Amino acid sequence: METEFSLHQSILFAEPAIEKPLEPVKVPLLKNPATVPSTKPKKVALFNGSVISLKPRVRPTGIGLDEKGDSFFSMDDLYERVRLRDELRQSRKVIDEAKKRDAARLAEAAKETAEENRLLWSDKYRPSSFLEICPAGNERQYRLVMHWLSKWGSLVFGNAKIDDENVDHLGRPLRKILLVHGPSGVGKTAVVHLLARQMGYHVEELNAANSMDTLGGTDADTGRGANIAAVLKLRVKNALTTNTITAQGKPTCLVIDEIDSASNTAEIVRVLADVLRSDSDNRTATESSSGTFFLLATKKKPKKKFSLNRPIICIANDIYSNSGRSGSANPMEKLRQFCEIVPFRKATGGESMFGKKINASAQKTVKAHLADISKKEKLNLDHREISEVFEICEGDIRASINYLQFSSRKLDPELVGRLATSDNSSNKDKTMSWFLLVDRLFTRDQKLSKEENFESVMRLVSSGDEKTAASGSLDKVIRGCFNKYLDVVHLQDDLALRPAMISDWLFYYDALTTGARDASFYPTLASLKFWSLFSDINPQKFRDTNSLVPNARGLEFESFELLKKNKAVVQRIVDQLPIETKLSFGGTSSNFEFYACQFIPILDRMFSPEIGSSRAMSALQPFEQALLKKLVLLTETLDLQLETQRDTELNMTYLLFAPDWDTIASFPSEEKYQQKRKLTNAKRQWLFPLLQQELDAKNASAQLKRKRTETPDAEEKGAKTKKQKLTSSIEYFRSQYGDVAAKTEAPVSRDDSSRIWVKYHEGFSNAVRKNIGWKDLWS
Amino acid sequence: MSLWVDKYRPKKFGQLTFHPQITDSLKSLAATGDFPHLLVYGPSGAGKKTRIYATLNELFGASVEKLKIDVKTFTNASSKKLEFNVLSSPYHLEITPSDMGNNDRVVIQDLLKDVASTEQVDFSNPGKNGVKHRFKVVIINEADSLSRDAQAALRRTMEKYSANIRLIMVCNNISNIIAPIKSRTLLVRVPAPSVKEIGDILLHIALKESVKFSSNDPEKLRKYVDAVARGSAQNLRRSMLTFETISMQLELLNVDNLSSATIVLDWEVIIQNIALSLRRDKSVANLAKLRVTFYELLSHCIPSRLILKTLALELASSETSHCRELMETAAVFDERLSLGLKAIFHLEGFAAKAMVIMS
């Protein structure tokens, strides 16, 4: 503050030198009258208390003029002095004023900085231009998003069409919705918002918080479900078709954030599907009106045209989440089908399909980003500390920035040092009491006898008992001990004897806490047993070593999450089974044991046959053909979908089945896991196109058949009512057509290229029925 | 459905091949037009369900197979809505109350009361001997995982509504079923089919599906299908699935290569590896490694008790000298697994104990 102020002054005032020349003038003026008369040395006490003796100057007497000149006052000099003094006074005044003003300004500035401080850094350092985005290993994904958005440019801004096979006739990307997914805090929302803004859109956001809002005035109580869906639809449509005032004439880009965690995901997805459907209806209409295709719905009233001409971007954390009820179809599953999917990933270790791997360059960029912030905020963190923060937050950029901000207040070197040296599993909860208790349970005080020691531990454990047991922190303590005791034993004698003993006590604990038994005190005994079995005089030695079980603390949670996911997959597969099959598999029960342990692994085997001799169905050997036919039948009955998933990192495409059972059938810990994965993928590369082809052919022939059965019906009716009607041209052509279909049907199913397709109006009913003849088709 | 399991599932008593005594007694039971509550138990893949449906078929005719799935909703004590799938035909219902976890008591009570309070009126099918079936059959799957509360709730219901309901409970093991229920039911044990019986069925299927073998020597064929049956632990369902998979993978089944007759699933391989490493390295470091593997198995929906059982059998087969202790310990831990909730504690505990026993 001080230095700043003086600096400030010197810049403000051009003549600070005024004061200085005054001094030498002043001194003789004051001193002279006193010193001249006396010739003796004189003692003078100064204000600061020190005493000095003043000697009269001995001057050469020969020069009297000088002395005389001093006694005379030169008027010019005097005037000069008066002028200077006035000037000084003036400048003082100015300075004082400036000081006041400055103080006020400073106060203001202080207020301002306080305001700025109140901003979360994660908001403050939210990137505002493309160059500011921290790459974090997601550059490719950024480019994908940008590329997708730029495709809309031709429609929205009238840019030149991008020549690409992935755009439709209006220049829009084929998949009209972009689905960005990835773990939290990697910058999905930031990037999407930023890119949309940079491409010149106004971002309209719909998120978990506001998607449930109804428009003002509508009463939500009556007919709630339908109402909300309608309102939601209105909102989406409004966002897509109208411009808001605040957008300043920019086109809107709808961003649906947190689509997977919104409470009405299913509704949002339904609305999106509706929007898309109405759009593609529209597209066929416009296409047909251009004259190349026949028009079916001419009699229909021309509906108000709706075409989707604004981009929609959805953001989700987990696109495979199954938060909905287990019975109902997963909305995300539906959403995935019509979305372009861009996966974002964490910088720590992008979990690719090939297990976890560390992405060094991505980590570097994130750390550089954090270092930049720390420089700007004058935190003076060194590289090691930054990587520590990064580790703690597990690659979550937002969390890292938050962590920086809130720890910056107390980041003194000592604390940072402790942060860095504390246990390497670096848990945020380490200061919590249960954690300390776990530590305490593994230490034995050297000075006390065994009994005293036990007493003290018992007091410690049981003192917090009522509270801890109730809030479930006893469970945390036991879990903590369980996670730790192997490391301890490993360093003591590495024998399985004591782990075997503690297992009895763990059962005791488990049995007492399971079920609503009123035994709040006894379970704590298990933790005491931990102490008596494993406590060590020198706990430091195992605190610093690496844990034997990698990620011991996360393991429980991770496996639980995976289990949940796998259960959902099993449930889904079970739900899709036809009832008869369920019966032969042992009834309606979601008998996980059978499905997960036998059916799915065997199904996996069935669907990974050896790669066949050829890539074309017709060139296959008869055995392989039979096999494929069987698989096709299976895919149909199990209602499996063939999906592709792209790994942008390795630029590889993975093929998988829609209820993705790979997580159940395969085990990443197996030695040959990677090879197996590759092999499976290669097999599927061969199998999937064939399957798809066969499925399509099947659908096609089914449609043909349906039509064929329709035709004889019509014929019969015609014959019954009037013979004349049969002779009417349309019926005649119809019957002809039926014959043609019957004739061509058999060879058609084999050969894809020469098939003729006639799209029939799907929602067929008598109300809009219109007879079609050859003329209509081929004119 | 194209799976052989489905295709060759017998629908009538006449098509059942093995366990003739059970089939006969069920047949005579059905012939009377009425039967007591049944408790059918036995290992999976032994044909319990098939026999039950054959009985129903005998009683009510083929329309038993006209199945549909209803979703019923219940509200539990804290007025939370529960959805529950019920498989039903005009004559019976099939439920799996263990799907509902702790709420199974509510389901049992509400559903059974609901069914029992409406009397079955059957004019269209007067049945044999002119007896009208005034009752509806309720099949309860996985009865062994019913909670104690639910079983207690069943107990009274079974007597009170016996005029309108017949219960058929299906389970693998009756040790979890409380004694009062056992005494109110007719116990029917369906043992696993013998290797030969499974082999017969597989050969029959092979004939029908024209599966090609490398040699048609009946001796060798027999050996091959026996290997399939043995590899699937005499589980008929699994044998059929395995056999179908094998015949899909290979054009020509090599009867001389018996190891190709079994499919060892990935999780079984992993448990075998666990057993191997347990015997080789009896240190805590290994225990820590195994913990990760156990977690992985658990997260792949493999039930903890199945893991324990497979592991114990694997260990016992190779460590014959400690067989007795190992099985005893395994039994203790099996109980712990079924009583407790934290499977990982007990699996690791068993691994530690096994290390101690074997060292």
TrEMBL record, chain A:
Residues 174-348 form the AAA+ ATPase domain. Residues 701-723 are annotated as: Disordered. GO terms for cellular component: nucleus. It comes from the Eukaryota. One of its GO terms (biological process) is DNA replication. InterPro entries: AAA+_ATPase, ATPase_AAA_core, P-loop_NTPase, RFC_lid. Residues 709-719 have a biased composition (Basic and acidic residues). GO terms for molecular function: ATP binding; ATP hydrolysis activity; DNA binding. Keywords: ATP-binding, DNA replication, Nucleotide-binding. This is AAA+ ATPase domain-containing protein. It comes from Australozyma saopauloensis.
Automatic annotation (TrEMBL), chain B:
Residues 34-192 form the AAA+ ATPase domain. The keyword DNA damage does not apply. InterPro entries: AAA+_ATPase (IPR003593), DNA_pol3_clamp-load_cplx_C (IPR008921), DNA_Rep/Repair_Clamp_Loader (IPR050238), P-loop_NTPase (IPR027417). Keywords: DNA replication. GO terms for biological process: DNA repair; DNA strand elongation involved in DNA replication. The keyword rRNA-binding does not apply. It comes from the Eukaryota. One of its GO terms (cellular component) is Ctf18 RFC-like complex. CDD domains: AAA (cd00009). One of its GO terms (molecular function) is DNA clamp loader activity. This is AAA+ ATPase domain-containing protein.
